[in-house]
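Researcher:
Attend to token order:
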Amino acid sequence: MRIYNTKTRRKEEFKPIEEGKVGIYVCGPTVYDFIHIGNARPMIVFDTLRRYFEHKGYEVNYVSNFTDVDDKIINRSIEEGIPAAEVSEKYIAECKKDMEALNVRPATVHPQATKEIPEMIDMVSKLIDKGHAYEKNGTVYFRVRSFEPYGKLSHKNIDDLESGHRAESHALKVTGEDEKEDALDFVLWKPKKEGEPSWVSPWGDGRPGWHLECSCMSKKYVGDTLDIHAGGEDLIFPHHENEIAQSEAANGCEFANYWMHNAFLKINGEKMAKSLGNFFTVRDICQQYDPQVIRFFMLSAQYRTPLNFSKELIEDASRGLERIINGAEKLKGIAENKKGILLSEDEKLVLENDVPGYIDRFDEAMDDDLNTADAISVIFEFVRFTNSKTDENSSADFAASLLRVLEELSEKVLGIKLERKADDVDDSLVQQIEALIAERTAAKKEKNFARADEIRNQLADMGIIIEDTREGVKWKKA
């Protein structure tokens, strides 16, 4: 498998630290509100990365954190008049509901920053001892110039960064508001403010800086060196750059061998922002569209390609997913209804000679830097192939074998469920619909086509669409 490494700006052959195993750390959300649709892209993309590694036989340690102490959480706690911990726990629970809806599997571990404070204090102490950090009036700063390769991920030049900070730094120092040795230095530990959560430390009561949290949680649950560190491209600088500096300065080894970053999600061609009125939570979107359509849409583009979210594109994704689901349902129908028909010699040849090629092409796409767009194209081709190779004479074993391949690639690897969203129809209405369908079937057998058409129109008036298939009559809400 070849991965585009943000650090080297090229695709590289993936080589794990330990044969047959892979350790992945993905920066998770700050839990002060419902997650937005932009949060969903890295969740879906890197969940798919994990699934693909498992498909290839790797044992995967997949760690994704919750940032549960932050200015935004504190502000929300003040707004709602409840403790910050209550805010974060509430939205962690809501985030997990949204992840489940999107078929994002729980991580091996979901660490929370507030539960890992001792490890953070240890790392800060180590950085001070090594001369990479210093304390001023309860605030501990990382000394950026002490880490010579600073900027190696973002490819930013430290002198250019300094010139950008110079005017701001001078103004702050004149007013006495900034005690940093250098404008580039960043906070590792900040002192307590009234009404904020805090923890006891050698530098006084306070709380950790955001960058420090991920360095410590990834170290504890994955190791000093990660196989892969991933997240949205907005985290490259300063968050991931600062993680590298403090982790490598403290641990004395490479922090991560591969860095993967997904591109931004735009809404109707514009950056998502509350001020533009185009800010949508996952919960909002999933009330309008099947969550599996959202997942399918997110994977319809390669993860480093900017993705535009619009009604038209979501509807295109819905139609595409429908074609795959229809193909799966056809195979299920044959597998269930043709159990008396044995696998033919021609069918055996198809399974031996033709089907493996589709699996190989799917894997080739995924091996090329997780190219889910090309992988989905292979699935479309496979569905067309299965439709052309199956009919009322096909055996159950043949259909079941084709279905297993389709489910492996679509459900297990891409995480796209091959089932329609359950329609919100009460039991009494279901009974009425099924009774009308049975009456229509009987009318057609008696060649009473006028009555059959009347029933079809009656169902349409009820908002029900029926479809005659080889496997029987199927219905769904309009």
Notes: The first strand starts at residue 2 and ends at 5. Residues 24 and 67 are 17 Å apart (CA to CA). The longest helix spans residues 311-337. The radius of gyration is 27 Å.
